[in-house]
Specification:
- Helix content is 16%, strand content 31%.
- It is of the alpha+beta class and 382 residues long.
- A hairpin with a 3-residue loop joins strand 13 and strand 14.
- Helix 4 packs parallel to helix 5.
- The longest helix has 14 residues.
- It is globular.
- It starts with a strand and ends with a helix.
């Protein structure tokens, strides 16, 4: 588990003490720290410490920097079932607070976020306030995220590559998954292989991200991880009038690889509403394609995307412009339950749900050969 926090004082060490009993820390880990500048803003000292190995389904108590308050978190289980909370486009509004409270009201193991975290949009103190907002939740469960357009924060000549704050504050395990960028990576969690893709890094055929994805998919052992889940930001399928077509070029480049590898579910954000599609491939219903879910309704300051195409496309099974979050509960190797929970005043209301089977358990869809397009380096292509 990686523990990250920010301090203003330069004298705080990048250490985490932890143990299984409150106030008793049998282990200590030392990590690294960084900081960054953005125009006139200077960040605090950003600490990142990896602790472990850790036992599964265990509560650990820890404190950061050798002093200060004690936190605790629970590690994911060793076997099914496992439950993922899924929320995108969070921001820092009252609706954001409502979404986080609703997520926290029911138990879960890992939170997945398909981009657009703080909505700082170059106003760097908003990254700090976002950290304070999510600390009560992100300190207790693993948060695994990918970036969205609001994380780019590019500026011509000065910051042309973008993602300076995001990469400094939210390092994900990209090196562990043989990726060359913090913007795309993968990890395993209890029989589930989860792939985080980057809508705002080069994804075209034979790009670094494209080649990495092909190699990552080829390594998947469905006997060990029968479920495969993908997260990215800009939707490939979308019947909302907002952000129409923005994910199309990425879909054209990468969809065939996901289909051939029998990905089970694709979660996206960007559109500030909820929508669930049937299993789909190449713009048509396909029993061996992934279910696509838009979950960009976490509570952002830009409000909801209220307008949809009319009539509803046949591949769109449920759509609603309301704030909320989703729950993916994987019961075993073959069955999972998805629910979308609407934020309705003080309670979370289940408005959409579905049971579905893993494609790895389908005799008609699996086994299937691995991606048909072999990874090719840019150098070889030239």
């Amino acid at each position: 588990m990686k523990v990250s926090w920010v301090t203003r004082g330069s004298g705080v060490s990048s250490t985490v003490e932890y143990g299984k009993t409150p106030g008793k820390y049998e282990s200590t880990a030392t990590g690294e720290h960084t900081s960054y500048y953005y125009f006139l803003y200077t960040s605090g000292k950003i600490h990142h410490v990896t602790i472990g190995p850790l036992d599964p389904a265990t509560v650990y108590y820890y404190r950061c920097g050798g002093a200060g308050p004690e936190f605790n978190f629970r590690t994911p289980p060793a076997t099914f079932p496992i439950e993922f909370a899924v929320a995108g486009d969070l921001g820092q509004t009252e609706w954001t607070s409502s979404t986080l409270e609703h997520i926290n009201a029911s138990d879960y193991d890992i939170l997945l976020l398909p981009g657009d975290l703080s909505y700082a949009d170059t106003q760097q103190p908003l990254w700090d306030s976002f950290g304070r907002l999510v600390e009560p939740y992100a300190s207790r469960r693993p948060w695994m995220v990918t970036q969205g357009n609001h994380e780019q924060e590019t500026f011509p000549i000065i910051y042309p590559k973008g993602f300076k704050a995001y990469n400094s504050r939210w390092p994900m395990p990209y090196k562990e998954s043989a990726s060359d960028s913090n913007l795309y990576y993968s990890f395993d969690a209890i029989g589930t292989h989860i792939i985080m893709l980057a809508s705002y890094a080069d994804f075209h055929v034979h790009s670094n991200q494209f080649n990495w994805l092909a190699k990552d998919l080829a390594k998947i052992d469905r006997s060990r991880t029968p479920w495969v889940v993908v997260l990215l930001h800009a939707p490939w399928y979308n019947s909302n009038l907002a952000h129409q077509g923005e994910g199309e070029s990425m879909r054209v480049a990468m969809e065939e690889m996901l289909y051939n590898s029998r990905v089970d579910v694709v979660f996206v954000g960007h559109v500030h509403a909820y929508e669930r599609f049937t299993r789909v491939y190449n713009n048509k219903a396909n029993p061996c394609g992934p279910i696509h879910v838009t979950i960009g309704d976490g509570g952002n300051r830009e409000g909801l995307a209220m307008l949809y195409k009319d009539p509803t496309p046949s591949i769109s099974l449920y759509r609603e412009a309301s704030f909320g979050h989703g729950r993916l509960r994987i019961l075993n190797d073959t069955h999972a339950h998805w629910s979308w929970n609407r934020n309705d005043d003080s309670v979370s209301v289940v408005a959409d749900e579905i049971w579905f089977k893993s494609l790895s358990s389908s005799s008609s869809c699996f086994p299937k050969v691995q991606p048909t397009i072999e990874p090719t380096s840019e150098k070889d292509e030239l």
